[in-house]
Fold:
Amino acid sequence: MTAIVRGEWLKLRTTAIPWVLAGIAVVITGLFILVYFLNHGAGGGGSGGGSAFVPNDWGAPHPGYPHTTTQLRDLVGRGLTGYIFALLLGVLIITVEFRHKTATTSFLVTPRRWQFVLGKLLMAALAAIGLAVLLLAVTVVGGGIAVVAQGGSFGSLLGQLGAVAPGLILVFVLFALLGVGVGSLVTNQVAALIICLGWFLIVENIIEAIWHGTVKWLPTGAASAAANVTAGRDADFGLFNWWQGSLLILAYGLVFAAIGSFVLARRDIT
Amino acid sequence: MTSAIEVRGLGKSFGSVRAVDDLSFEVAEGRVTGFLGPNGSGKTTTLRMLLGLVSVTDGTATFGGRRYADLDHPVRHVGAALEATSFHPTRRAGDHLKSVALASGLPLSRVDETLELVGLTDVARRRVGKFSLGMRQRLQLATALLGDPEILILDEPANGLDPQGIQWLRQFIRGQASAGHAVLVSSHLLSEMEETVDDVVIISQGKLVLQTTLADLAAQAGTGTGMRIRTPEITRLAEVLNAVPVGWRQVAPDTLVIDGATPEWFGPFAVQHQIVLYELVNERGSLEDVFLRLTHGFDASHTVPGSGQSAPFPMPGGPS
Structure:
């Protein structure tokens, strides 16, 4: 299995997919940090709009305005929104084999197809860890610059890393596994991407709007639980605790992967 | 002589379509076996069943008694080059081979060795999307050779190769057989293979037509030899030929074929009767004719039987 994953890693890094996805995720995370930087303290209690604390658009808008622990934690955790890229990475890692018909060669090397799917799951998990660490680095460095520019302490920002990183890495890994699971079942790359994006951008929102109580059972709700971050969610929704949420996403991913392996094992590669 | 590949009662149904039916043949070690049949006759499906890519409906296809998926290190025993399209277009040729070597637990030194073997060393850093069909064929072959397998399965490897490439491929395949390896090579053109193969397995419409040696097939073809004559005096030639005990038939307004004739006989004969000749061709009955006859010229992808390459003129009734 180590050999298969080594082969997978070479295959992955010799295509544009992971680099493009990581690049977009970094840019989006960077924008979140910029928004935090520009908004920090704006309209907040003491400082009052248009005060001398706002010298210009690009300077430090609100020097000296305190950063609360929650704010710092949210700042370091900004990369969490990139979980959708971990999901897409998982989908692409497996569907690319069918899009370019490289599956033929892969199945000659790994004729037991569950091993092929397992290799993809492991590779996707490792790639997701890499992506999560990258985005954490972006928030720590970028957020650090923003906080320090506003007179905050880099140390207190870094102090939140321990609280945020495990949940974020966990969510990324789980969503990458979910992506591989979906991709093993829906091997058509375009269809798999549309299903994933459609689900997370549209379908989940509709389900949430109609049945509030289902949120904790949906992947996004489970992800929020797993990350121990309930950002933007009404507490009434009542999410699972982090390990229940993790098990739920893992179950989604593995059930898809198991069905996908089963279907794939019977599929004729012509 | 032991069998490297054994196919027993192999069958495959795609829905209601019977693509391969009760197919049995063997491929011997140290020999090149041509797997021949018209387009759509089930060759590729058979090879893919052998390699576990397509599920088997009936029968077995094994390597030394074991299915491909049950081999411990499949790529070290069986190398397969199936189609020239299965590469990621932006991946470099060398990286493609490296990924296969890594996943198979093969030393990376094999990558350079196989690139050298197929003559792609100079383009190892080039992206496969920029490759010509011939280069892709070579890269497929390199992929198949990575594990230094004792059994090679090549699906239409000559497609897209230029004449030099085909010559190189022939020598390569012969070299593999000389090294004691078993080679199963499919083609829809026997003429492409007749200098390369030792044995032939001919299928048509998913069924076995004939498994024999090339020598046997050539003996069958030999019955069709004769002389093809083009002359402006075809009527007079026909008259004088009728006076001697030879069979002949007219194949074009100015051309006829004399069965069993040799130039040594016909040359003096033409001088004796003072017949003007435009063309005098020693017509060897080609293997392709036999092949077409055996497969009834059936080609699932064309309505016109045969390619016309081997039969320059329509031959009513065919050579007998």
Q: What stands out?
A: The first helix of chain B runs from residue 43 to 50.
